[in-house]
Specification:
The chain is mainly α. The protein has one domain. The protein has five helices and no strands. Keywords: Signal.
């Protein structure tokens, strides 16, 4: 029963703000990152950090003179700038580790 509930949450966008969610690389990581932040009052701010990160990655492909490492550092700094304890001490370390690991393996 628990497995069915977990699979349902990971495969169906059941939350209204989820359709605008920008964090995560694909469907599964996007849903996991959404679920990690669902109880945070700063969820929209977290999403803005992800949106800016994705925008800079896209602009880099089109000639922006920032390295992937610089873009990832800006993302981590964006999360770290939140006054919310949960974001700074829980979300920021997890999300920053995720982007750094992804950058390492995709370069």
């Amino acid at each position: 029963m628990k497995l069915v509930l977990i699979l349902l949450l990971l495969t169906a966008p059941v939350f209204s703000d989820f359709l605008d969610w920008q964090c995560g690389i694909g469907a599964i990581s996007g849903r996991i990152s959404y679920l990690l932040t669902i109880f945070s009052s700063a969820q929209r701010g977290i999403n803005e950090c992800c949106r800016e990160h994705d925008t800079l990655i896209d602009r880099r492909r089109n000639g922006l003179w920032l390295t992937r490492g610089q873009i990832d550092r800006r993302f981590c700094q964006c999360l770290d700038n939140h006054d919310n304890f949960f974001v700074r001490w829980f979300i920021e370390p997890i999300f920053c580790a995720a982007v750094k690991i992804h950058s390492f393996f995709s370069s």
